[in-house]
Design goal:
This protein is of the alpha/beta class and 204 residues long. The chain has 5 helices and 7 strands, in the order E-H-E-H-E-H-E-E-H-E-E-H. The chain is 35% helix and 21% strand.
Amino acid sequence: MTKKQPKNRPFRIAVLISGEGTSLQNLIDRIADGRLPGIEISVVISSRSNVGGVARAQKAGLPVDVIRVKDLPDIDKFSDHVALTLDVYAVDLVVQAGWLCYWRIPHRWLGRVINIHPALLPKYGGKGFYGHHVHEAVLAAGDKVSGATVHWVDNEYDHGETILQKECPVDPADTPDTLAARVQALERELLPAAIMQIRDAKQK
């Protein structure tokens, strides 16, 4: 995790997706307009073939590898395929951005994988807590605040150390959709900020 990166080459990231790829698009746009200087998306890995995120990656001219759980015999083979793809592209950091599949991270990749989660971890984390399931749980509990968290990924769901976290208010009139929009606005700022923070730390 602390391996120093040379300053004369891009900081290479892989983006792992399972859906529409709105967080991926945010990163693509920020790289294009200079708000993510020195960052390069080396590969996009999708756990589904017919999703918007794949089309977004292809439109941006990014390499895409579709790795589906159902195409492989077990979790070990699936995890190996993901890890070996990351090895091939020699990425510095793996960014899970709407990635919904568990993969067993091998030791060589621990400390090099981050995730964006639509809640204030450790609340509303763990298996089954993703997307609208999270926002529905926040509203059902009557919480006054929600937010987003960027954290390191280990081999337990939503368990790794927090990197960045930010709150937003929950309105009494909120629906899962309106709360999701407010949280997603935080995610668009937090995830790029975390990537830059990690890049800067590795280049010191």
